[in-house]
Amino acid sequence: MTATFATATADAIPVHVLETGAVDAWAQGQSDQVRNWLKASGFQAGLGKTLLIPSQTGGIQAVLAGYGTADQRARGRFHLASAATSLPAGTYRIASGVPGDKLEEEALGWLLSGYAFDRYRAQSGGGARLIAPEGVDGPRLETIAAGEFLTRDLINTPASDMGPDALEQAARGLAAQHGAQITVTLGDALLEQNFPMIHAVGRASGQAPRLIDLQWGDHGPLLVLVGKGVCFDTGGLNLKPGASMGLMKKDMGGAATVLGLAHMIMGLGLSLRLRVLVPAVENSVSGNAFRPGDILTSRKGLTVEINNTDAEGRLVLADALALGAESNPDLMLSMATLTGAARVAVGPDLSPFFTDDDPLAQALTNAAGRVADPVWRLPFWDPYEADLEPGIADLDNAPKGGFGGAITAALFLRRFAGTGCRYTHFDIYGWSPKALPARPKGGVGMGARALLEALPDVLGL
User: Looking at 73, 240, 343, 370, which residue is catalytic?
Assistant: First the structure.
């Protein structure tokens, strides 16, 4: 499985993309044979539908791909990906019909449609390969698709094979690929180097907790990416019910996403300094597990009352964010599969983000629209700050009441990011609950392409 375009060839099969209602107009310039075939097929160019036009020698002369109506297209993205997965193996080129401002999106969608998670069962993402359309930066899209494939693979791998050890090895492989430096603070060394909350959350697991620190680049603005790496979340002593535990292999989706984004940034050679921080733990149940009612002292010195051990992601992120803030970055962001409240608010397809920086928010929103990676801004709502203050400690990791859960979690993290840098938090889902164009059911990157697109504007690259 490779995220690459096909080599240009003279015998590539042309794909004509037609809106509903445009079939007759296209047919007027075709031969009697093609017009008769169209009439017999009843093809109406419905969204995602395809028609193979045979050649006189029994091969494929051309493909018609339905593009539906503008209203239908507004309800989704990557529409040509549906066509790609329905076509027989071969080399194809887009001959006509895709608007110029959608050409990059559709080409990327075609690449992404080739993904298949084949670690445990042989399977193929399809053999219909596309030649990079003229005017599209093929190598850039290949790098982006490869980063997305990395994210998907990491999320899809079950915790039996993607614990903290394996997540560290994935980060080391990425560092080696791009010539980055990597250090890992492991086990009790977390206490020695003042990462007490990462240690507390992960100490009950058979695989030691750790902080992965990847650094790349020697010039330009400093970007710090912090990704939640909870490789499995039982809920701890506040044990999750079975139905809620089923997808917890994806609780390291934030780490998977920042590693995929890091691949894109390093692979494209952006002129910046990159630091990736991943607190990698498993939230397990054991005799030494942290408990409800415990009070933890964070790296920043703030004390945290534990009112629910299932609100562990914000604890490990807090220590990592405090470290990231110490390096005075030009931009710091965290990505995490953090709260069910965010899913209730925006569903599985949107990436909600929080920031106090209006220009940054606008840049992200604009970039998301350009690259078909939708985001939605939610507020750091200051009046809810009081809900984080239990009285017995500086902060409460799980405020009671149940209202505004995504907001209070984001406010908690902001306390550790501080006010000295531009900070954005993404509360992503990291999972497609059903198969969609270019996104099979399973792990999926969210927000990374929007961030990548926004970086030149945000950091002045």
Answer: 240
